[in-house]
Amino acid sequence: MIPKSNKNEEEFDLIKPDNYNKFTSESGHWYTQEGEPMYTIIGANGRERNTTLRDAKTLGLVPSVTTIIGMIAKPSLENWKINQALNSALSLERYENESLDEFSSRCKYDSKKISIEAAEQGTKIHGMIERGFLGKEKTKPYEIIKEWLDETFPNEEWIAEDSFCATQGYGGKVDLYSKSGIFIDFKTKDNLEGKDPAKLVYDEHGMQLSAYAQGCGFKKVERVSIFVDRKDTETILYHVWDKESHTKHLGMFNNILEYWKLAKNYDSTVKKNGKKKTKKTKT
Questions:
Q1: What's the CA gap between 263 and 22, in Å, rounded?
Q2: Helices 140-152 and 100-133, axial angle in degrees (round to 10)
Q3: Structural domain that includes position 21
Q4: Angle 106-112-115 (CA atoms, 0-180°, nearest 5)?
Q5: 234 lies in a domain?
Q6: Which of 42, 126, 131, 249 is positioned for an S-S bond with 137, CB 3.0–4.6 A?
Q7: How far apart are CA 129 and CA 15, in angstroms?
Q8: What local confidence, expressed as pLDDT, does residue 77 receive?
Q9: Start-to-end C-alpha separation, the chain
Q10: If residue 240 lies in a helix (H) or strand (E), which one and from where to where?
């Protein structure tokens, strides 16, 4: 196994904002029917802004996988947010003459700031890993994950950061997958040491991977969720999903997709044949 080092902070510094922005989560994002990301658009005032549902209806864009999955409740995430709010309420000192509403707002702001910082850290870690698979920079998390993949799935050709548009009416950007149909998604969490990866995964994680596989045209797939510790990026856990749950998770996702179309009053189904992006990076 590759020994641990103390280079986590140094490696974070190598991933500057301009370099890792491209690795941002696809949550709330849109894609063209050719599979190209359309996260922002130039508005009527000539300024760049986030793409909206109204834009999507006008341009025929499709929502991301995580936008669809975002329609359902995520108890573990909500519980984490509640804990952050409680921590802020217990740790912040209430100012003299500060009303309860004012203190409550300050606690909400503080807990939201923590969530944003966690998301930014997750983006950095994704960038560290993806840059390795894109052949740009070999960081420790990349080397550890690559070693595990080579041992578990030998002789595979990996494709990193590839986006697609599915004829069902959604798109996405896959962290990593192989030509044989092994789909990998990277997640970041706190305090992973000693934890059981099987207790870290939820149906939405399986749905996300199954949706990616369907969107890329695969029926027989292997799905893997890889968890990286936010503070110690060399602590990494792996969960290989059972093949039987793929059908269930795909059915769950497709039903949520139909609900999203009805709720948003927008049938994003691709009338012509949607196609995958032809640009792929292999490793």
A1: 30
A2: 60
A3: 8-75+125-282
A4: 150
A5: yes
A6: 131
A7: 11
A8: 72
A9: 21
A10: strand 236-240
